[in-house]
Amino acid sequence: MQSHYYSMVKSLIGAFLIAIVFSCGSVIDKHENLKYGQIKIDWMKNLSGSFSFKENWDYPEGIYRNDFGQVSCDGLCPAETDKMKDDHGRIFKDSLPRFYQLVDTTHLFHSIKSNSNSYEWTGTNFLTAVKMSNDTIHCFTDNNAATHSSLDLIITKDKCIPVIKLNSVTGTAKKVIYICKKGYIKIDKNLWNNGIMKAKFDFTFDSKEAPEKPIFWKGKIYAPIKAE
Q1: 153-169 pLDDT, tens per residue?
Q2: Tens digits of per-residue pLDDT, 166-178?
Q3: Hey, which residues does 177 pair with through a beta bridge?
Q4: Which of the residue ranges 11-15, 49-53, 100-104 would you say has the lowest mean pLDDT?
Q5: What is the reported pTM?
């Protein structure tokens, strides 16, 4: 099941990578040295600053600790778990082992701490980094019930292509890609070589809806790089 999931994710990422290349194609050649939409990576021997946020964790969405001190679930629970609780939501003692076989109570450690004024964004604590090839990594932040803007980074050799991908749920639902026009990203080279992305970034993006008010996204990343 897990291998099938990652295979599906890899296919989606590959499709998105191709979409980004074509979407940037009309503007990519406007600059001879640093092409529009690309940011040169500043590789650091030892990236300083506090990354203590990586010690914080959450349960998967819908998982919480109930009034009885039990880790339970709400909303997206397997149907079988309904009969394992009493009318007050307490999980029956003899049902606990089976309940936790069905419900994912993994501790998910935070991998990004950031701030943004992007549309339909209320915050995110998780970023996934996937190795697409020997010299290309794709990173993307998770959406949730209230956040529908995702920060996507395509890192290839010494260049980073940051975009914001909005899957709007308002009125006329639509998908919009915002291209980065300036900014920086610093990445710890030693940790990168050991399969961990530790980075600081600050990006500004063109806003189609309000050109006079650019979108920003800045913060820190500490995430394992998953194999392709």
Answers
A1: 999 999 999 999 999 88
A2: 998 886 668 899 9
A3: 165
A4: 11-15
A5: 0.80
